[in-house]
Amino acid sequence: MDMMIEVQDLTKYYGPTMAISRLNFGVAAGEIMGFLGPNAAGKTTTLKILAGFLIPSSGTARINGRDCVSQSLEVRRSLGYLPETVPLYTDLTVTQFLRFAAQAKGVEAKAETGELDRVVAACGLGEVRHTLIAALSKGFRQRVGLAQALLNNPPVLILDEPTIGLDPSQIVEIRQLIKELAGAHTVILSSHILPEVSQLCQRVVIINRGQIVAGDTPENLSRQLGHGSRVRLTVKGPEGEVAAALEKIPQVKEVAGEGEGRYLVVAANDLDLRPQLARLVVERGWELLELKSQEFTLEEVFLNLVTEEESTEEES
Amino acid sequence: MKSTGSFLAVLRKELAVYFATPIFYITGFFFLLLGGYFFYSNTLYYSYISYQAAQNIQISGQLNPLQMVFRPMFATLAVVLLLLVPLLTMRLLAEEKRSGTAELLFTYPLSDWSIILGKFLAALLIFTVFLIFTIAYPLAFTVVGRLDWASMATSYLGMLLLGGACLALGLFASSLTENQIIAAVTGFALLLLFWIIGWQQEIGAPGWGGFFAALSMMDHYDSFIRGVIDTRDLVYYLSFIYFFLFLTKRQLESRRWRA
Fold first, then answer.
1. pLDDT 10s digits, B132-185
2. Do A104 and B99 touch (CB under 8 A)?
3. B55 touches chain A (CB under 8 A)
4. Helical (H) or strand (E) element with A10
5. Model-level pTM greater than 0.90?
6. 3-class secondary structure, A54
7. Which of A14, A44, A75, A103 to mutate to test the interface with B (most CBs of B within 10 A)?
8. What are the tens digits of pLDDT across the range A290-312?
9. Testing the interface with A: which of B15, B103, B110 to mutate, by most A Cβ within 10 A?
10. Phi-psi region for residue A288, left (φ > 0), alpha (ψ -120 to 50) or beta?
């Protein structure tokens, strides 16, 4: 596949402190990649290097085949970047600022007004166009930050925590906007909000303490790292008897009764337990009301990974 | 639609910020207030001497408005410049770093020179606006007397070059820190140094006196307000400006590596 963003052995030290260490990943053209990790994991540092704001201590980062350090200007031409803290020129109005951003990004004078209208509409900034940025709420500032990143329609977007500080309805809007960008744009976004990442991204890279701990599609991650599959079933039958019968199946690791005939069955391995469970219930003459495979959420995967890593570290 | 932004984008933005913040209005107000006062007091002195010359034909030969009114006015305005320029430049790069907007500015497809030139020229343009307002003084003078406008023009050229040199140095001071006050103090101290460095020669210090005088900002300024354009002075100011803009560029480059 055509890699739009390629990162090889990327390492960054702030003085003696390591921020990221030997990161390797790639983002295919048109893909939305989620960059997930707890605070201070090295997400922002990586994105700053990709945006050309920082220079790595070693390793390379390439965007569209161009090196982020030696061909910085060319790389920056194809970028839209939303920094984590959303720094803006607070003495300017929204229009003044966006006009500057458009000119700085090399939007042609003829296309400038149209381009401004486009991002203002896309980010819902119409009502604050002539307001001083200093007077804007956090949500609006976030949207101004996103608007400047979208100016000049760059093929690559780097969004550092794009939905932070927004209210729930705005979050939905912005997520929808980001989803629409996929295909024509390559997007890399960082977040520590897990449902957001699993909703938006085709691929997720999980990073902790400056190192990649996992990278795959959200579905694969939950399957591979969920440690066994889970099935939720609802059975009409004598409660104690059902639970005991379920536990007797050799591949079943754990059965948790949740009341009103509902049970959560955890398998010892990745095996799909549904056929066996269905057969058992029918053989015993109980009534099967519901049978559903329950995937691990990204939250659980993430917690598993991060805590696992910490425990191995303590052991060693 | 993929091209590089030019220094004009930065220039326009800096002008917008200058006009949106009080620093432009306050510095401009005091610059013109002081300039107006110097002009007024010098003109008063000139008219007093002129009145005496009517009785005493001996001193009428010395009566030259350029020498008695405008040369001292421009010399004093140069000192005002020393105090005022760090205020105009302190924000330029320091504030970008403090507020974090540097992260936007340096990730836009702008070369370091576009950023530096945009900021420098914006400050120079603001200073030129102040200078244009001071043309009111010689214009007012023409109501009562005649003026040599050619010498006036060289004075203004000198003022513009001196201002440019001070602004370049101020911009460099602003690139060193993220604190505006520190930027202003550093700019002021460096300007003072380049002003008084020529005094060595005046007190007759041997050896290096001539060298230091050649570096002095004010010595080169003096010939302009006497109505003389000397290539050496032009070269001095232009290389002074280039040197400090170049240092600023180096400072910006090193920031990327050190962060």
1. 999 988 888 888 777 888 888 999 999 999 999 999 999 999 999 999 999 999
2. no
3. no
4. strand A3-14
5. no
6. coil
7. A103
8. 887 776 666 677 777 777 666 66
9. B103
10. beta
